[in-house]
Design goal:
Helix content: 10-25%
Number of domains: 2
Largest sheet: 6 strands, mixed
CATH class of the largest domain: Alpha Beta
Number of helices: 9
CATH superfamily of the largest domain: P-loop containing nucleotide triphosphate hydrolases
Distance between the termini: 47 Å
Shape: globular
Strand order of the largest sheet: 6-7-8-3-9-10
Strand content: 25-35%
Number of strands: 20
Bound molecules: adenosine-5'-diphosphate, magnesium ion
Structural class: alpha+beta
Order of helices and strands: HEEEHEEEHHHEHEHEEHHEEEEEEEEEE
Radius of gyration: 25 Å
Oligomer: single chain
Length: 384
């Protein structure tokens, strides 16, 4: 038996329902539009979310993320379109009757109640027996690592602790769907990173479907099973984080997620598995794998991530995908170095190199003449 088939057997089987074309979506958003007067905040968005997903809605400020989330919760009525949760049309279902809980950015904790009482509030109001409330609150506080602070009031907690109280309060009623609007926005960077992993663990443990709104692309990349990128009320792309980064569907997504170099050009030849492109910024022609259909003379952009660029003093032995330039900027950033290289056309290209040895020997530096190049599969051709 080969090694690879052995490892294949022992690998845990993760069911990723969004990859299963026959799986039934848990949330179905069908051509949802929301207008405020003449202004369209959400523009005919269609989107399926599956059980156990941690789906991130990612976009700049004003792109319509919160409005879409509020329609899922029932706080806003769609102008047109339909939302189904677990197969049920939500059109005439009030917010409190939906199998949904929403955690707001402000947390909205009751200041006069202890941590314990804040978390217990929803259950008490539902008339859950006192003994059960105590047990469930204790379990939930342990889960978010606040057991030792149960008696404190919100003002005696740090921002991160208050965030966890709000999370515990939203989770204790065991909603099937938890909506979180910028849940980590108030936390500093380090705490945000820790809390991101806690959120993933909690989600894993509880099997609740999460929809998280964020404007922070790193946060979305860390948290999400899939990301929906929003731009001016539209969904620009829906994909898993890795796919979103490596195969952006359009210029907007390529530039929104991470850093990218875009070469504008026009198609020379389009063959079965490759396309050649002339870009006025480049010395050589660009040759790229297909992926999308394009025709001669069509205007396209070629996207290459900075870490997929090579930089060398000698002219690479290649017919395509190489061009000379001059280093105009260089920054040592510990784990990597960032170069800016100006091409003859004036275009600036960003290149990152890993600092994978302590002694980097004869380093490249300012004002050096260099060649940029990349491998054919490293680029993505974009038509929109
Ligand atoms: P995001 O959460 O992505 O920052 P929102 O969904 O809050 O964006 O808002 C999208 C757009 O809709 C914004 O331009 C915002 O000003 C507008 N908008 C949101 N709510 C209202 C409202 N109640 N009345 C009028 N305009 C609104
Ligand atoms: Mg918002």
């Amino acid at each position: 038996m080969s090694i690879s088939s052995e490892t294949e057997k022992t690998k845990p089987q993760i069911t990723q329902s969004w990859r299963d074309t026959k799986a039934k979506p848990f949330v179905q958003i069908e051509q949802i539009t929301k207008k405020f007067g003449e202004f369209t905040a959400v523009d005919s968005v269609s989107l399926d979310i599956y059980k156990n997903e941690l789906f991130c809605l990612l976009g700049g400020s004003g792109s319509g993320k919160s409005t879409l989330l509020r329609m899922l919760a029932g706080f806003e009525k769609p102008t047109s379109g339909r939302i189904l949760i677990d197969g049920v049309d939500m059109a005439n279902i009030e917010p409190w009757e939906r199998p949904v809980n929403m955690m707001f950015q402000s947390y909205a904790l009751f200041p006069h109640l202890s941590v314990e009482a804040n978390v217990a509030f929803g259950l008490r109001r539902e008339g859950v027996k006192s003994q059960e409330v105590t047990q469930r609150v204790q379990k939930m506080l342990d889960m978010v690592q606040l057991g030792h602070l149960a008696k404190r009031k919100p003002h005696m907690l740090s921002g991160g602790q208050r965030q966890r109280v709000a999370l515990a309060r939203a989770l204790i009623k065991r909603p099937k769907l938890l909506l979180l609007d910028e849940p980590l926005g108030a936390l500093d960077k380090k705490l945000r990173e820790e809390t991101q992993f806690e959120l993933i663990n909690l989600q894993d443990e509880l099997g609740i479907t999460f929809v998280v709104v964020t404007h922070d692309q790193e946060e979305a990349m860390t948290l999400a099973t899939r990301i929906g990128v929003m731009d001016q009320g539209n969904i620009a792309q829906i994909a898993e984080p890795h796919e979103m980064y490596e195969y952006p569907a359009n210029r907007f997504v390529a530039q929104f997620i991470g850093n990218v170099n875009l070469f504008e050009g026009s198609v020379i030849t389009s063959e079965k598995d490759s396309v050649t492109i002339h870009s006025p910024d480049m010395d050589q022609l660009i040759k790229a794998n297909h992926g999308i259909s394009c025709v001669p003379n069509q205007s396209v952009s070629v996207a290459i991530r900075p870490e997929k660029m090579r930089i060398s003093r000698e002219r690479p032995d290649a017919e395509f995908n190489s061009t000379p330039g001059i280093i105009t900027d260089y920054a040592y950033m510990g784990s990597q170095s960032v170069f800016k290289v100006r091409l003859a056309s004036g275009k600036e290209v960003r290149v990152t190199l890993p600092n994978n040895a302590r002694d980097m020997g004869d380093r490249l530096t300012w004002d050096e003449s260099v060649y940029l190049s990349w491998d054919m599969p490293s680029s993505v051709v974009l038509t929109s």
